[in-house]
Amino acid sequence: MQKILSGNQVKSLDQQYIEGQGIRSYQLMERAARVFSSWFVQWVPKEKSVSVFCGTGNNGGDGLAIARMLHAEGYAVSVGLIGDPDSGSPDFQQNLQVLPETIIPQTWEKCPSSQVIIDAIFGVGINRPLAGDYLRLIRQLNASAGMKISVDMPSGLPSDGPAEGDVLQADHTLSFQFPKLSLLVPEHALYTGKLAVKSIGMQARYFESFDSQRFFYSGESLETLHKTFSGASHKGDFGRILLIGGSYGKMGSIGLSTRAALRTGSGLVFCKVPACGVEVLQGSIPEAMVLSPGGENEVGGSLEIDGMDAVGMGPGLGKGKGAVEMLYQLLQTYNGPTVLDADAINILGNHPEWFSFLHANVVLTPHLKEFERLTGVEAKNHFHRMDLARDFVLKYGCVLVLKGAYTLISFPDGKQVFNNSGSVHMATGGSGDVLTGMLTSFLGQGYSIENGVVCGVYHHGHAGELAGSQFGRGTLASDILEKIPESFRVFGVV
Does residue 398 sit within a domain? Predict the structure, then answer.
């Protein structure tokens, strides 16, 4: 996992790395520009004209180096400058001096807006809204029809806080080494566009001295988080889990969770559903076992958890009396791994006096609105929401999976992990039900809470990517769960 540092920490990190490696800052800038250019040539045809707009700080120095390298690759490159070049950073000035003679820098007003616009105006250091010529330039670029790509950060976007005023609206952002916090915020998606994160070779040891409890996970060494099973393992070794949910007209939800759990590898999956759903599940998922129902159209009756290795509750549940009573029983009597989703979270939010029943084995999986109902607080922005999630798990000792783009996992020790798998095509009904089944399955197989949650969230997103690449906007939640085994194979999980 990669630590996420603040903008101020980035400057210190760069300096420590430069000193530790015995290199000059100019060489680190060359490395970053080379990484950007290598990524760029994979995606942008050389027939496209390119304009690089550069400020006079180190982000502008990156832009000048990129312009030089893309020119060497055969692109038609123009450079537009904003600010006084004579007062630019030393690395900016050095890159200005080594530009090829065929690239003549122009003032930003005279530089054409080409088919591709590279934004290298401001990096992580900006801490106030744009004004003057900078504001005019950003508005001009936003109005341009060209594809816009930002170097490290969209210009005008603070690295650690909410946007104020105009910001470059990038189609793509390439962030070096790790994403800056602002790039992971849903409210900033308009500015970030599609995010790519590329290493510039900084080893993990250089991050150790920096205080941060926020991490970015892109599947590194994912196979090592998985449990292994011997050739003599039987179905009991792969876990007995109970899934509770379903109501009249919403049996599909618990069905998706059940199939997802089976595809994730659960040995035995039991379902507690209302009477109206017994034949539905028995007929559509013959591998599942349905317990005796306690209600006609909503879950009810006794809670049967003896011998269960994990319990998941919520998909399609409804909020009737039986469901409320069963959630209360579950929280009161079961200390094993427990995943609460959907209406189980909504019921819990209606009974904050039950928060004291939460414990380290409970995983809550709300989407943004369910999280507001749970906490009773309408977050001002995603930065506020991150803090609320951390405060909640610190207070109640549970795990919280805040679903969405870059799903945020908050652990009871204060650690927060942003997940870097998934696709916009996962924004479809039932996707969260699939996650509930996957998480319950991993925990029932005996994974630690942290490994099980990280594996579940990452594979869920990766399976969504695989399904999205095949079906695009037509992706269904059932397509996602059918891609779980393929996701396992990609990462060498057997």
Answer: yes
Let me know if residue 242 belongs to a domain: yes
CA separation for the pair 448, 72 (Å, rounded): 51
Q: Is 182 helix (H, G, I), strand (E, B) or coil?
A: helix
- Please write down the HEC assignment for all residues of 1-39: CEECCCHHHHHHHHHHHHHHHCCCHHHHHHHHHHHHHHH
Residue 194, beta-bridge partner list: 172
Where does a domain end: 166, 183, 212?
212
What is the number of structural domains in the chain? 2
The amino acid at 299: V
Summary count for the chain: helices (H), strands (E): 16, 18
C-alpha to C-alpha distances, 213 to 103, 133, 181, 265, 337, nearest whole angstrom: 44, 38, 12, 31, 24
Same domain, yes or no, for 299 and 438? Answer: yes
Check whether residue 150 and residue 277 sit in a common domain: no
Query: What are φ and ψ of residue 52, in 5° steps?
Result: -110, 115
Assigned domain for 236 exists: yes
Query: Which residues 6+ apart lie within 8 Å of 173 measured at CB?
Result: 149, 150, 152, 153, 154, 183, 192, 193, 194, 195, 196
Same domain, yes or no: 158 and 245: no
Tens digit of each residue's pLDDT, the chain (494 residues): 999 999 889 989 999 999 999 999 999 999 999 999 999 999 999 999 999 999 999 999 999 999 999 999 999 999 999 999 999 999 999 999 999 999 999 999 999 889 999 999 999 988 899 999 999 999 999 999 999 999 999 999 999 999 999 999 999 999 999 999 999 999 999 999 999 999 999 998 999 999 999 999 999 999 999 999 988 889 988 999 999 999 999 999 999 999 999 999 999 999 999 999 999 999 999 999 999 887 899 898 889 899 999 999 999 999 999 999 999 999 999 999 999 999 999 999 999 999 999 999 999 999 999 999 999 999 999 999 999 999 999 999 999 999 999 999 999 999 999 999 999 999 999 999 999 999 999 999 999 999 999 999 999 999 999 999 999 999 999 999 999 999 999 999 98
My answer on whether 253 and 206 are in the same domain is no
The CATH number for 439's domain is 3.40.1190.20
- Identify the domain containing residue 300 by its residue range: 222-490
Q: Is residue 103 part of a domain?
A: yes
| Residue at which a domain ends, from 212, 241, 271 | 212
